[in-house]
Design goal:
Three copies of one chain form a homotrimer. Chain A is α/β, with parallel strands linked by helices. Chain A is about 30% helix and about 25% strand. Chains A and B meet through strand 3, strand 8 and helix 6 of A and strand 19 and helix 10 of B. Strand 8 of chain B pairs antiparallel with strand 19 of chain C.
């Protein structure tokens, strides 16, 4: 498995995020469809599905489909205050169509801004109740002139469907790794264009591997309702095949690394994620399950119970630009940030793909000197013994896996994996794959 | 299950302790019988039993019965120095009858006082060897006049019986909770009138419940020999039915909370007791098994092995007034202290009675907004999501109990229990009882 | 089991080490044979075995046999610089025969010294490649005169055999304790004459016991290749019978105590060793498995997997005199050091021999007062209760062993063992042996 962990991947993901920026995404509608179609140009095998409005999924109902042409707000002097051509966040998500004139007083009930972040346009939605509204910077709102305002919200909100996409990469077994991300957030970068672009990069990386131990399932869906719909349609398959899952969100900035573990907190995938982060960053923040807030809420729900982790950079809720127009490709997300987000999950997958049960084939220690691995002159306290190689070998008893041994000798999985391959080549150990089940 | 945890219970227990104060209790005799008869006025179903002197129980033999009319000591000037009408502690428990005149020198071998606590009358007994003696304040003893003293110990010490009482409250199952306390201590308050009066209050509280998951067995017996006798007579029944037990001792002062866990230290009842104390007090003291000193020595003995905890206020041995006349209803025990002692065990019982295995009935998260539990407007980092309710629900997988979940989300059992009942009412979870077995 | 832990044992071991000092030991040859023959004078049952050069053992081949008559080096002025009659370390172990004249420049490639320890002769060997060389103090080497040097290495290096010895002490079961030490180190004291002399003392101690629960197997062999050869010849027997093993090395100085645990780190023998060291020394150093460097590398190798610990004084590599002429009987090893090394393993063996499963025979606590073990006068907080005896008894439930109980009450094994014997004599507990298996 060769690593494609160079900075070109970071640049490629960053540039793809720029291409995806402008679509007016929501949990349904054409902005979502255009996004998925653009993903399909990179992943031709991507299957796009529609779920009709009104269908019951789990405890939920698919809502009407929302399509926005444009939303604008003019002040009493005729100057444009908000325009979704400037920024999709200017309109409250799922705003019903409205065209008319209102006083500033009437308008205020429809405006959303953040006094504590006066230059930020907040991200506001009203999926399950009919409303209309605008979002704007508080410093703009505070200077609005008294008088009458013209409102033009050119949207439709009527029965249609919810769109999601799925990609399957078959492997040598039916055991599956699930990668889920969401595609409903308009014009924000870390939360959430980073998830989809890293997911695409991972899918391309995996599709190029000569062989895959696991089969892979990528899901690109709107958050919450999309995940619920996907689970509803695929529950038996998911429960039967998926042995571990990654939720890709907030994987684009270069500030820190974060982990949201599984509900249980001690599944194999948690150990894998912790191993990766321990060796990838000098420190990282592990959050408790109670801090969850993404699609693990659905995939790890009691009756679904898929062991899903989120290996993130700056976690949603925890960075100041979260859910505002400031979460963009200049301030927050960078090629290096995306590269790190990609690399963390790639390494976790590499562990799952390569973890093995090595077992010594010799009785007593191997004689390394006759294999040219050890100086023939024994002297003093600092011998030329390849200590790590022998430490690793000493644990090859057929019950400990590569990851177990890596954690025991406190080295990175891939280093230990390489030593085990060397021992295998020297015919000192035999190796069998170690599957998650 | 409504809580009767108001201060009236504290006052009621305190007043009852005042009524019980004067009886000359010992491990046998009429002081003990009168005490049990007064308890029976509050618990009409109480069964009083007698075990004859000389019977073999376990490794022990029931001793002769001791009855004290009065014990007095006169100094050379004819002034009374000790009189059990003043305080039952003035005579050594189980003093044989004696009437005569002795010199001060001869008398000294029969006197007991505490130089380090000069105003305290110590509590001394001689159950298994024939003696007589007086206990008095060291400041009094130091000023005794030389000369001859008149001794009048009007007691009987001859074959009779040992008395104990038992109350059974049937529940919906044969699984039993045992509550044991002892009734042999004369004229001391925390150790031990607090245990009997809290036990009576608990029995009344439990008898008023509409339903009880468990059956309850209350034992009021003299310490050690009474417990051994009770176990001897009921061993098979105890081993078959009792799933958890509380030893009620030192539950009357308002200074602190203490726990003596089971011998193993990790039984379910230990978890329950720790949960209660963690949420009842800002901190409490947990003692090791090696600090035991009450009837868990018998009930948790190797071949009996009942998981018994003592949830105490100030533990025996650990407060300065222990086993002296200073352990009284003015200095040590208070209504608030008794109330806290009652409440701690009541809460532990509430957990045992209500602990359940909740299981979600929906696939994916419940949609709270359509149930009016969640604002329909999603915005910013501080949503109006009822986070605790969802955290609790997220653990409702049918394997974790209410107590497990309460410990995971770090909330009090009754708060989490109430949320689970709310989820049950909303038909989002189904609930089955979780029995100790 | 009476303890022979007096200082006479330390003196006896020390004096025996002095006797063994002069033999030119190596992994083969007559120095090794003479050493084993001298051990046999103390252990008449010792069986001495030869393994021919060229035999394959495990991953290794028995090398040619090396015998040294004498090695000398003369400087240009005719003065002797090195002579193995002065110190066996002066010649590189396994030096091939050589006789001739070389310039100082040519000679330098054959010299070994330690610039950081200018007064120490280093210990250097070249078992598996043909070389010759001298070891000397760096302060001597620095002052060597220019000119030609005469070299006389009177050795033979040709097919012969490797020698090891074995002693078996039968016990009441076929379960075995293995004690291994090595006899290949020339003229060094802690590493390694301490191991063989302590092993001899232990074997004598065990042979004098009235009964042994376990059978014992002592192996005296050259390090690494000797252990590999021994394992190769006895693998099935070892795997079938050996339940715990001690590697005796570096047990002669009085500076500290050290533990190298088993590979797993949590075997029963690890608990035993930790218990012994916790009670023997105010503190000791526990090393990780990765710090191993002795024959546990062979005995605990994956396919052999014997649980072996090394309970040491100053561990190899960790003391400044290690593997130099400074590791001698004056600077490093002392009678008290050897005594401590002996005592540590003796105590561990005592635990293995005596560990039991005590079980109470009485229901409820035993009545100690009628057995004269407890004052009949109950008073105050400081009773004369034999608390430790009752604590120990309270754990006698038939599932906890003497060692478990000793760890729970935090007392030394032999103290708790003695209390259990007392309880057995009083017929309050019954005792069954607790075998390692």
């Amino acid at each position: 498995m060769s690593s494609d962990s160079d900075l070109r991947a970071g640049e490629r993901m960053y540039s793809f995020a720029q291409d995806l920026w402008r679509y007016p995404r929501s949990i349904t509608g054409n902005g979502l469809r255009s996004t998925l179609n653009l993903l399909k140009t990179r992943l031709p095998e991507l299957q796009i599905h529609e779920v009709p409005s009104g269908w019951k999924v789990g405890d939920w109902t698919i809502p009407d489909e929302w399509n926005l042409q444009r939303a604008r707000l003019w002040d009493p002097s005729g100057q444009v205050v908000c325009d979704t051509e400037w920024n999709n966040l200017h309109v409250v998500g799922y705003s019903e169509p409205f065209s008319g004139v209102v006083t500033l007083d009437e308008l205020q009930a429809h405006l959303h801004s953040l006094p504590g972040q006066p230059d930020a346009i907040p991200y506001v939605t009203s999926y399950y109740e009919r409303r209309w509204g605008f979002c704007l910077a508080d410093e703009v709102r505070r200077n609005l002139l008294p008088g009458t305002y013209r409102v033009e919200i050119d949207s439709t909100l009527r029965p249609g469907s919810l769109t999601y996409a799925e990609l399957k990469l078959p492997g040598s077994t039916v055991h599956e790794i699930l990668v889920s991300t969401y595609v409903c957030h308009p014009s924000m970068a870390n939360n959430e264009l980073s998830g989809p672009v890293v997911a695409v990069e991972l899918a391309q990386y995996l599709s190029k591997l000569d062989e895959r131990r696991y089969s892979y399932r990528f899901v690109f869906a709107p958050e919450t309702i999309g995940a619920v719909a996907y689970i509803h349609k695929n529950l038996n398959e998911l429960k039967q095949h998926v042995v571990a899952a990654f939720n890709l969100t907030c994987v684009g900035d270069d500030r820190t690394y974060s982990l949201l573990p599984t509900r249980d907190g001690n599944r194999e995938i948690d150990r894998v994620a912790r191993h990766v982060l321990r060796h990838l960053a000098t420190n990282h923040h592990e959050y408790p399950w109670e801090s969850r807030g993404s699609d693990e809420r659905q995939y790890s729900a009691p009756l679904v119970d898929i062991p899903m982790v989120s290996i993130m950079r700056s976690k949603y809720w925890e960075y100041p630009e979260y859910h505002t127009s400031l979460d963009d490709l200049e301030r927050v997300v960078s090629p290096a940030g995306l590269q790190g987000g990609f690399e963390a999950t790639r390494r976790a997958i590499e562990i799952l793909e390569r973890d093995s049960l090595p077992k010594s084939t010799v009785i007593g220690e191997p004689m390394l000197s006759r294999r040219g691995l050890y100086s023939s002159l024994g002297a003093g306290r600092f011998s030329s013994l390849p200590q790590l190689l022998l430490d690793v070998w000493s644990y090859c008893d057929g019950t400990l896996s590569t990851l177990d041994i890596a954690d025991k000798v406190r080295h990175r999985f891939d280093e230990v994996d390489q030593l085990i391959r060397q021992l295998e080549t020297l015919q000192i150990v035999s190796v069998t794959p170690n599957y998650l089940r």
